[in-house]
Structures are given as structure tokens and as C-alpha cells.
Amino acid sequence: MDRRSKHLSSEERGVIFAEHNRGSTQRVIGELLCRPASTICRELARGRQEDGSYCPQAARLVYDVRRTRCRRQRKLIEGGEMHRFVRDQLIHRRWSPEQIAHRLRLMKPVDPSARVSHETIYAAIYAQPRGGLKAAMIEALRQAKPARGLKRTTQAGSAMVPETLRIINRPEDIEARLVPGHWEGDLIKGAFNRSSVGTLVERKTRFVVLCKMNGNGAEAVLDSFTRQMKRLPAALRKSMTYDRGSEMACHPELARRLKIDIWFCDPHAPWQRGSNENTNGLLRQFMPKGTDLRDASQTWLNDVAALMNNRPRKTVPS
Fold first, then answer.
1. Residue 48 bridge partners (DSSP)
2. Which of 25, 134, 183, 266 could form a disulfide with 240 if both were Cys (CB 3.0 to 4.6 A apart)?
3. How many Cα atoms sit within 13 Å of 11 on the Cβ side?
4. Parallel/antiparallel/unpaired status of strands 239-242 and 261-264
């Protein structure tokens, strides 16, 4: 018996009405409908009139009212205080649903009714009717997908690097994230790969630095990375891990200018720069694919980096 058949239908209520008027017992009516006698008893009680007769319409009305009362009440109701909090953190502060849910748990540790899970937030966003608010909330999500479950693919390239600079030779203390100063780098490409922004993420703290690029080539990477990383204390410039893109052709000069060690990942192994890959995904909400990044000023990039650095991020303790 499926879930729907557990509830009495209009046809079954009609049979109960006819058999009750005929004088049939509850057990007989239950056998006719393949229902327990207790189910018939409760149904007759719901529809009992003052003269002792049974009214199927009244029984259905009472049933519907009770079903409404037993349903779990929605927490994220548009216009409510919690809905406003979720909307503001999502749209204005660019927090993810998981970050918002975690903050609600910290704010209301002993009141389950005052917090929701991240899945509830996702469900509320995608269940909203079409409109400006729904579009704004979806756009604020990390991937900005129009529907949940859509996958995206990326392509990877490679370039030859010296054997001594392969990531397999990188010191173990960098892998362990014991001290700050070790960075992961990459580029976020703009429309038609004609523009880009340099991204640098510190492995231990996940601190983000964004670099204005004047082009996509090796010289642009050299100039922009040098300019931004020289703003950091020398003690925080120990190493950089990068992929095998051709934009790092000037890596010997970059290492000399910054007095930094540079290591290269294996081909098609983005997980070896996991912090940077994750951060680039988060940054796509500010720089969606297809955007012309030549218009992105260093001031605006600094503001985006500040937003990233001042919001909670889930990391595994070192």
C-alpha cells in the first residue's frame, strides 16, 4: 500500500456514508474497503453530526484542518526576520548558504527553531517564484547555476618545467601548512581568454591577494605578481606553487625579484593547488565567466579580496 492509499479517498467516504446509513457495522465497512475497523471508527467520529449521522464533507474538512496543523512550519518565510538575515548575508556579504547556516548555529546555539540548515536555504532559493529577488540570490551563489545539479567542466594545459622544481621535491613542511608564507597561484580568465586576473592564496591562512593584469602573457604575470607580493613582508614570501601554464615562463626572474621558491604541480593535477582552486571558484561570483576583466581596477580587486578575507571559511585545522 503506497502513501496515498493510506488516506481515505472521496470514493471511500461515499461508501462509508452509504453503508453507515444502511446500518452496517464498522467491521463490515472496513472489510469492504480493506481498511482496519479503527480507521472507519475515526472517520465516523470526524464526520459525526448532532443527530448521529455521518457527513463525508464535514469529515474531509476536519481531516484537512488537522493535516495542516501537523505539517512542519516553514522557517524561511519571505518577509520574516530569518529570511531577511539569510538574504542580506547572501546578497550583500556574499556568504555561502553553509556559512550562513553555521553562523545561525553560533548565534542561536540552544534554539533550534531559530536556525536552518544550508540545504533548507538552497531549497528556499530555488523554490522561489521567478523574479528579481530569486535572480539576485542565485547570482550570489558560488556557481550561480539556474538549477541545482548542473555540472561544469574545465580544461587544463601544461608546460615543461625543470625536474628540480616539480612539486614532488617541495619540502614537507609546506605540504603540512605549518607556517604562513607559502602561496598558491593561478589566473582567472576573462571573456574569450583575452583578459585575466592573478589570484594568490596563502596555504595556511587562506589569505587572498588579487593582481590586476595588463594582458595574459608571462611578462604581465611577472609584473603584476611582483607588484602585489612586494607589498607583503618578506617573511611572508617563502614559496609559490603554480600549475604548468605558459604564463609562468618568466618564473626564474619572478623568483629572483621576490626571493621566493617556485614549485610546479604535475600535469592535470589541480588538487595539488587545492586552496587556490577552491578560492577561484568562490571568486567567480564576483567575476563570472564571460566577463571582460580588463575593466577590473586594482582598487576593486582589493575590495573583493577584503570581502574574501573577512568572511568565515571552513578549513581543516593544522
1. 54
2. 183
3. 3
4. parallel
